[in-house]
Design brief:
Elements (H helix, E strand, L loop, with lengths): L1 H11 L8 H12 L3 H15 L4 H18 L2 H17 L3 H12 L8 H18 L2 H17 L3 H17 L3 H17 L3 H18 L5 H12 L5 H17 L3 H18 L2 H18 L2 H18 L2 H17 L3 H17 L3 H17 L3 H19 L6 H40 L6 H84 L5 H16 L2 H13 L3 H8 L5 H11 L4 H8 L3 H14 L8 H6 L2
Helix pairs in contact: 1-9, 1-11, 2-3, 3-4, 3-5, 4-5, 5-6, 5-7, 6-7, 7-8, 7-9, 8-9, 9-10, 9-11, 10-11, 11-12, 12-13, 13-14, 13-15, 14-15, 15-16, 16-17, 17-18, 17-19, 18-19, 19-20, 21-22, 22-23, 22-24, 27-28
């Protein structure tokens, strides 16, 4: 899916162009004859041309522009350079650096800042925060860009940012908003007869179908996108659509059809010379060959994918391929080759803090050493895997039930006030009726009039008493309403603080264990060169560090914070079945957070089928009937 996100970024950003080798060569020839500010303005344009095929060159050229702008105090050039540097590092997978450079671009004087560059920097921040999983900031910046473009009636720009927001809303589970963004952007592109834009949004729609589980029309939607892109000369998107079709057939386990479409996609990627996409296409072909049982061919494609990522110097993607190829070797009884690749991926991931890769690598290293009967090493890497599995699961929820209860009570008080107002109006209407009747009485019926007058006096006394009661009840209800609102605000602040405690503690656990693991690794290396008399001391220190890594204190605190947000959640589970495991608790927590199967598989790093099996076993442990709704049961705890 990373390739699809990159495509969306290229299609929907305001700097979308279809560059080729001739454009780059022409601009490079022009730059050779320029000097001063004109030369560096042109270098900025050249940097933009390279962002699709060579992100590192985009960054290097922008850095050259920035150095010139700093020496000559050119704020406009500085702003453009920071934006281009942000693009380069974003496409290279360095989202933290992309955020840094985008914020630098936004830091210029608003009076001199280029409006379009500002919008682009904010759009880049939205995409970068989306990749980091900071969805509130991602949506905030995306919606700001949408508002600015609507204000200046930039319909093309509106369609572009709607595409970005659709992806972000999809990542946060806001599927209705995602669908609305897709529909509006498609309407704009259709009105503009922008075939490429419509095809791009159809691919986003396919993603939405996969995430929401409504994939009945997935194949037809991909075929519609392919039919549209066949009408225009845009080989890059055609390749992505063909690759998406291949992914559909992989999920359907129709590997021959998947191979056919992925090979066609690879041919188009090679025509446009987009090395990153070529590498990913080789990765898909490798997985297809694994599905067909052709492991020799699969390893061939994995190695070709590795070669390209090594040339592009994309370490995060290279680590993913190392783990995939290492797992292939492990599954096919080639432990020595598997060990080399798994260790390479593990140590590289530690340097760049690639948590999920560390988790996968440590898991497979544990299995490898267990097969070799090196049980101490197997236990060591299993503990690292368990630590990262717990850390990446996380907890980030609020008590929706408490919030609904306070809002319900507030609404009840409001309805009580409205009821009193209606009763007052009815009483006033009755009094007017009595006055009308008494006014129409004749002088002859004096006794009757006197009786009516006496009754009116009593009614007025009663009415005044009712008015006093009404005012007191209204004041009381108003005070209770204000108190309830304060209680609701205090509850929200408390939940926010507890959620921050959870995040802070999770970060502390990860930092502490990472530091201990690094120390343990250093001590292990030192012990190899130490004197024989000193070796027992080194081993004692290693055992103490290992004991600290296995300690459950951090998890106990983490569990305590979770139950402060979800009161007695784990106690209720254990009351049903006290034999539930830690993994069962985590699965229940994810269901409590309303995650679907695909999202749970992503968080736990398991296959969707494994999630299905785990849910089935969990339902049995919770003594639920086969047709019972597991999600409803857990959400009611």
């Amino acid at each position: 899916m990373k390739r699809l996100l990159t495509l969306i970024f290229l299609l929907l950003s305001t700097l979308l162009f279809s560059q080729n080798k001739t454009e780059i060569e022409n601009l490079e020839e022009k730059i050779a004859s320029l000097s001063g500010k004109e030369k560096y303005e042109a270098l900025c344009d050249l940097s933009r041309l390279y962002y699709r095929s060579q992100p590192q060159k985009t960054y290097n050229l922008a850095l050259e522009v920035l150095n010139y702008a700093n020496k000559n105090d050119e704020p406009g050039l500085k702003e453009k350079a920071y934006v281009r540097m942000g693009i380069g590092v974003y496409l290279a997978g360095k989202t933290d650096s992309a955020i840094y450079y985008s914020r630098k671009a936004l830091g210029f004087n608003p009076e001199t800042r280029d409006a379009e560059e500002k919008e682009f920097a904010m759009n880049l921040l939205s995409l970068a925060y989306d990749q980091k999983g900071v969805f509130d900031k991602s949506i905030e910046y995306g919606e700001k860009v949408l508002e600015l473009r609507r204000e200046r009636h930039d319909t093309t720009g509106v369609a572009a940012v709607l595409g970005n927001l659709a992806t972000i809303y999809m990542n946060t589970g806001q599927y209705e908003k995602c669908a609305a963004c897709i529909d509006e952007s498609i309407s704009i592109y259709e009105a503009q007869k922008d075939t490429i834009g419509v095809a791009g949004r159809l691919l986003t729609m396919v993603q939405l179908m996969n995430r929401s589980g409504s994939d009945e029309n997935e194949k037809a939607t991909i075929q519609r996108a392919l039919g549209l892109i066949n009408k225009v000369d845009y080989p890059f998107m055609k390749a992505d659509i063909l690759s998406t079709m291949a992914t559909y057939f992989i999920s359907a386990r129709e590997f021959d059809s998947a191979f056919f479409y992925e090979r066609m996609a690879l041919d188009y990627y090679e025509k446009v010379r987009h090395q990153h996409s070529i590498a990913l296409s080789y990765g898909n072909l490798a997985r297809i060959e694994e599905g067909r049982g052709n492991n020799v061919n699969a390893r061939h494609f994995f190695r070709k994918e590795m070669e390209i990522f090594e040339k592009l110097n994309l370490e995060p993607q290279l680590n993913i391929v190392r783990i995939n190829l290492g797992l292939n070797y492990l599954q096919n009884n080639l432990p020595d080759s598997a060990e080399v690749l798994l260790f390479a991926g593990y140590h590289s991931a530690k340097k760049i803090k690639q948590a999920q890769i560390i988790q996968h690598a440590s898991k497979y290293l544990s299995i490898l050493f267990k097969q070799k009967q090196l049980f101490e090493e197997a236990l060591h890497y299993h503990e690292i895997y368990a630590h990262y599995q717990d850390s990446l699961a996380g907890v980030s929820s609020k008590s929706a039930l408490a919030e609904l209860e306070t809002k319900y009570e507030t609404a009840q008080k409001q309805r009580a006030i409205e009821k009193l107002e209606n009763e007052k109006k009815i009483q006033e209407s009755r009094e007017r009726t009595i006055m009308a009747i008494s006014g129409s009485s004749t002088l002859i019926l004096l006794l009757l009039v006197a009786g009516i007058w006496q009754k009116r006096r009593k009614d007025k006394v009663i009415s005044r008493q009712k008015e006093l009661v009404y005012q007191k009840e209204k004041a009381l209800n108003q005070a209770q309403l204000e108190k309830q609102k304060l209680k609701e605000e205090e509850l929200e602040q408390s939940l926010l603080y507890k959620s921050k405690q959870l995040n802070t503690h999770a970060l502390h656990m990860m930092q502490k264990n990472t530091m201990l693991q690094d120390i343990q690794s250093d001590i292990k290396e030192l012990s190899k060169a130490a004197a024989i008399d000193d070796k027992p001391r080194y081993k004692q220190i290693q055992r103490q560090i290992a004991q600290s890594l296995r300690a459950d204190n951090d998890w106990d605190v983490f569990r305590l914070y979770f139950e402060e947000v979800n009161d007695h959640f784990f106690e209720k589970l254990d009351a049903i079945n006290e034999e539930l495991t830690t993994h069962d608790h985590r699965l229940c927590a994810l269901i409590k957070l309303n995650m679907n199967s695909k999202e749970m598989a992503s968080v736990l790093n398991l296959a969707p089928n494994s999630i299905k099996s785990a849910r089935y076993r969990l339902k049995k442990k919770l003594n639920l009937a086969q047709d019972a709704d597991l999600e409803s049961f857990i959400r009611e705890l």
